[in-house]
Amino acid sequence: MQTFAEELAALRMEGLFRSMRLVEGNQSKRAVLDGREVLLLCSNNYLGLADHPLLKEAAIRAVERYGVGSGASRLVSGTMKLHEALEARIAAFKGTNSALVFNSGYAANTGIISAIAGRGDVIFSDRLNHASIVDGALLSRARFVRYPHNDISALRRLLEDTKVVSGRRLIVTDGVFSMDGDLAKLSELVALKKEFDALLMVDDAHGTGVLGDSGRGSAEQCGVMLEVDIHMGTLGKALGSFGAYAAASREIIDYLVNRARSFIFSTSLPPAVLAASLAAFDLVDSPSGAALRLALSTNSVRFKAGLQAAGFDTMGSETQIVPVYVGGAQQTMEFSRLLLEEGVFVQGIRPPTVPAGSCRLRCTLMATHNENDLEQAITAITAIGEKLGVI
Asked: How far lies 327's CA from each of 117, 128, 143, 224, 264, in Å?
């Protein structure tokens, strides 16, 4: 049997060993890393709300009024006034009858999918869906069918070929694919789910607060807000707080309360987090939120144009997530290391997060980045890309 030390040594040899870096201070566009200031270009704090004064003030007030912890799971004694207020706010935001808060995006996806589907059911999942969707499908013990990325014709064939006698069909997709930055074809998925009497679940972790005219996410951008059966999203990315949610019909939410194990058996989110999330939704719905979305969109377009002009492959990105294709794991991590030496913090993405041979730098823009920040990043990425022979 191979020892842990031997397995770790193998990961190092393959360029796949992972370790954590300490970010000092707050999660703003510039951070202190290992004692020096760097441009932060790998955070999901898309709107810059993680250190926003209104969120901090709301969290402080909640601690003063409600305390630090919630004390128990929601079904024991852990449901507090702020949980209900946040769920009502989310339901109104997503245009559904009801909503349910989970402790993380991973807990939401594993809990929702394994509750909704089981033996005798079939789950159809985009091949590039997040790992939490895959794990939720495996936990469900339903038949798990993966279709090629965004290939609607292939999904149609799989739906036609997959017989379901009395069970459910569940189509699950990311709204924004977290490593490629492209969008799901939600309008076409809605048409398929209607044709084949399936449920459609959309994980909009990276679209919530960002996409659509009012920040409702990828379903709003695609004009199918009312056609999605289960909207899943997170509170810790563009919304700057923590946790996740499911927004759906009252019947589905009641079912999740009774069947979603990650909800039933977890101590609930604390008051400070709930209050910060409520403040974030208010900001997203305000003129300030609209201005932040515009700034983020402008930064994303400008950054991609600069990289593409230099000759980089940004892998079809349509959003604020901008991958820079490199290829091999070792070269990708060397690229990341050299960028950090130049004061630009960008993570390299390797297997198992992405397939072998498709390693990339995953750049993420914030609304708070300015032209000088973008120019610094483009210049550094271009110089190192030329040095390493990527362009």
From this structure: 36, 17, 33, 35, 42
pLDDT at 135: 98
Q: Which domains does the chain have, with CATH numbers?
A: 15-44+287-388 (3.90.1150.10), 53-284 (3.40.640.10)
pTM of the complete model beyond 0.85 = yes
Compute CA distances 370 → 303, 314, 342, whole Å.
11, 20, 18
CB atoms within 10 A of CB 60: 13
> What span, in angstroms and rounded, lies between the C-alpha atoms of 62 and 69?
11
List the structure tokens of 155.
């999904």
pLDDT at 154: 98
Catalytic residue among 43, 104, 125, 178: 178
CA 260 to chain centre: 20
Does the active-site annotation cover 81?
no
Selected catalytic residue, list 52, 94, 237, 304: 237
Is position 369 annotated as part of the catalytic site? no
200 in Cβ contact with 228 (< 8 Å): yes
Please identify every stretch of the chain with a pLDDT value under 50, giving residue numbers as ranges: none
- Which among 304, 334, 331 has a CA at the least distance from the CA of 316? 304
Helix (H), strand (E) at residue 318? none
Dist. CA 144–CA 140, nearest whole Å:
9
Active site residue 130: no
SS3 assignment, position 122: strand
Please state whether the peptide bond connecting residue 355 to the residue before it is cis, i.e. omega within 30 degrees of 0.
no
The catalytically annotated residue of 83, 130, 193, 206 is 206
